[in-house]
Amino acid sequence: MTSAMTEAVQREGSLSERTVSAAREALTGRGNVRSYVAFVGPAVVASIAYMDPGNFATNIQAGAKYGYTLLWVVLLANLVAMLFQALSAKLGIVTGRNLAEMCRAEFASPVVWTMWVVSEIAAMATDLAEFLGGAIGLSLLFGVPLLYGMIITGVIVCAILLFERFGFRPVELIIANLVALIALCYLAEMFIAPVDWRSATLHTVLPQLPDGEALLLAVGIIGATVMPHAVYLHSGLTQARIPARDDREKHKILRISNTEVIVALAVAGFVNMAMVMMASSAFHTGHSEVAEIQTAYHTLTPLLGGAAAGIFLISLLASGVSSSTVGTMAGQLIMQGFVGFRIPIWVRRLVTMVPAFVVVALGVNATNALVISQVVLSIALPFPMVALVMFTRRRDIMGSFVNRKLTNVVAIAGAVVVLLLNMLLILQTFGVSVPRLP
Known about the structure:
Elements: H1 3-12, H2 15-27, H3 33-37, H4 42-47, H5 53-66, H6 71-95, H7 99-106, H8 109-142, H9 146-161, H10 168-192, H11 197-205, H12 212-223, H13 228-238, H14 247-283, H15 293-304, H16 306-339, H17 345-361, H18 366-380, H19 382-392, H20 395-398, H21 405-429
Helix pairs in contact: 5-12, 5-14, 5-18, 6-11, 6-12, 6-13, 6-14, 6-19, 7-16, 7-19, 8-9, 8-16, 8-17, 8-18, 9-16, 9-17, 10-14, 10-16, 12-21, 13-16, 15-16, 16-17, 18-21, 19-21
């Protein structure tokens, strides 16, 4: 690079600095459309948690066994996710602190340490699901052993995390492109799979549970959708990204943030619904027993052709790599927020890879491991959800940005529904009898 080019780059600043500068122009009313794009990032990064490999297994099972019947559950879960991600983003924007930091400041030490331990276990369970998903995708796509797929996935994730040294924007753009790839893959699947659009539309808005097993599967869908690490992470992504100088700027950032949450989570919802529709059109008639990712891939090839099966694996690989990256970022933020301790992120990446290698070494079924990881997440979920509602409804913390009464009612109702459903999922997983529909 010539000295002139070097000076030009230094004048322009880093990509992240240029992003902040563009956002500031929008806040002062001097910006254009490009300036508003600078705000896009946190919700897109958080949205990958709603398209992780854990969702693949649940959605495939729902579509294969019940066709389009449970699409309304996916929609409901996505609406709840929108609300809590918006609240998380608001907490970071208004207070300048993330959810884990707020917990450390407001709760007693025993509660803080308990929440940290539970959150770390949940982060590792999340990482197990996401890491295994990427490894399964590589293994099936290129025919390599699962262990080698895990090593390759780990190397790719570490390489992406290295971009954090250049600020927040490069990683945001990488994740955004992977999200776009997943969405495009399922858009393509919709053209390949013979979807019954009339039936799909009807069941998206018509709640129906054919039997007790459908109830439990619905519980699994909702329980695996709202992710603890995503609730923690979103507040961290917004807390100092575009610093607001006064309440007027905070209000403007919040409006933009809420719009981004709606759009990003709508894309995630489309992907999840597309998974169910693809599984329904391909497997429901004649192959309703399909419940594993590997089985789905091998069954797709003769039913819809190699292109459909290949697209499915590409989306799974993109999901595993991106969600594993985001999961590692969330784990780092949780540790730093709760106990003020930070380790090199590549060290954390290596440590959280250990459970996945142990699972494979012990010969545990990969899809079963994904399901078990979702149960661990269900146990951990009450902590961040309840804490987030508590903080955002307190005027002494939020000031004029405190939740409205309707927001509190809806948030509390959403938390209660999700927590009750998670409890049913946990009881069912451990063999406790739960009421079933006729």
